[in-house]
TrEMBL record:
SMART domains for this protein: acidPPc
Name listed for the protein in its UniProt record: Phosphatidic acid phosphatase type 2/haloperoxidase domain-containing protein
InterPro entries named among the record's database cross-references: PAP2/HPO, PAP2/HPO_sf
Gene3D superfamilies the UniProt entry points to: Phosphatidic acid phosphatase type 2/haloperoxidase (1.20.144.10)
Membrane protein topology class: Multi-pass membrane protein
MF annotations from Gene Ontology: hydrolase activity
Single GO cellular component term: plasma membrane
UniProt keyword Transmembrane present: yes
UniProt signal peptide: none
């Protein structure tokens, strides 16, 4: 476990980096976007289509853990039945949500290629095109079965105590993901910032990230994709040892790559993705600390 002094040092470094980058963004947002936007970017299109998986997989894995724990608590059939059903619904629902999300972007790529538009051109706020109902349901069911088999095989090797501990982690992971998504959605609505690809020809409707515009239908600030991608850090909570470290590093790298891709594809400004990355990281940190303190009463100096 990281020492408290190390945590404080990294927190200070992160806070300073956030302040510097957001200050820089006030000057470079528009010129940077104008310089790097490429709606035909395969890099931007790939992460636009698949980059948000961590948000959904936090919920999916949490639901799978709830089902596994319920199966082992058959001594309490009412509780086990309710928990198992809830876990299955959460897993099935979030798998369907992920298929809907990726399916919409994938269908947009196909449609763009068909009509001769850049592959990455897509509406980030509403699905203009989608997969057929049959294709959507088929992909959903296949993914649901594959994920369930994989996760349940992994959980079958865990002891009852380990699964119980994973269930506690799942509760905090779900709460962290939900809070991050809600905070992001609320800010999007209240800021009403025009996306780079929505700007008029003169770009006179560009506004600084410091200027909230109210609920006007525009949702550039902050970046939802970056928030969802950065939640890959939360997936490290379910691992141990070196695997946990690798998932943590992966979460940071994945969040950064998705952030860069959103600027490249013209869906967000630099400040949109920077704010989202650091806000999500802060939320993850708070819930990780809460989980630690509540499981070890007395160690925080507040509960004796």
């Amino acid at each position: 476990m990281m020492e408290e002094s190390t945590k404080r040092r990294w927190f200070l470094i992160s806070a300073m980096a956030f302040i510097v980058l957001m200050a820089l963004a006030t000057a470079v947002d528009l010129p940077l976007s104008n310089a790097v936007i490429d709606y035909g970017s395969w890099f931007g299109t790939f992460f636009q289509t698949f980059g948000e998986f961590p948000l959904y997989f936090v919920y999916i894995i949490s639901g799978e853990i709830a089902m596994a724990y319920a199966w082992r608590r058959q001594d309490k059939p009412l509780f086990a039945g309710s928990l198992g059903l809830g876990g299955f619904v959460l897993t099935a629902w979030q798998t369907k949500q992920y298929v809907n999300e990726t399916g919409s972007y994938f269908a947009a790529v196909q449609n763009n290629l068909k009509i001769g538009q850049p592959i990455g051109k897509a509406n980030s706020d509403s699905a203009a095109v989608t997969l057929s109902v049959a294709a959507n349901i088929t992909v959903w069911l296949i993914l649901l079965v594959l994920v369930t088999i994989s996760v349940q095989l992994w959980l079958s090797k865990k002891s009852d105590d380990q699964v119980a501990r994973l269930l506690v982690i799942a509760v905090f992971a779900t709460a962290a993901a939900w809070f991050a998504a809600e905070a992001n959605a609320t800010l999007k609505q209240d800021w009403g910032r025009v996306r780079p690809y929505e700007l008029n020809k003169s770009q006179s409707d560009f506004t600084s990230w410091l200027h909230p515009n109210g609920n006007n239908g525009h949702k550039s600030f902050p970046s939802g994709h970056t928030m969802a991608a950065t939640l890959a850090i939360v997936l490290s909570w379910f691992a141990t040892g070196k695997a946990r470290q690798r998932w943590f590093v992966f979460g940071i790298v994945w969040g950064a790559l998705v952030a860069l891709s959103r600027i490249r594809i013209g869906a967000h400004f630099f400040s949109d993705v920077t704010f989202s990355f650091f806000l999500t990281a802060l939320i993850i940190y708070i819930f990780a600390e809460l989980m630690t303190y509540l499981q070890t009463p007395g160690d925080d100096g507040l509960t004796q």
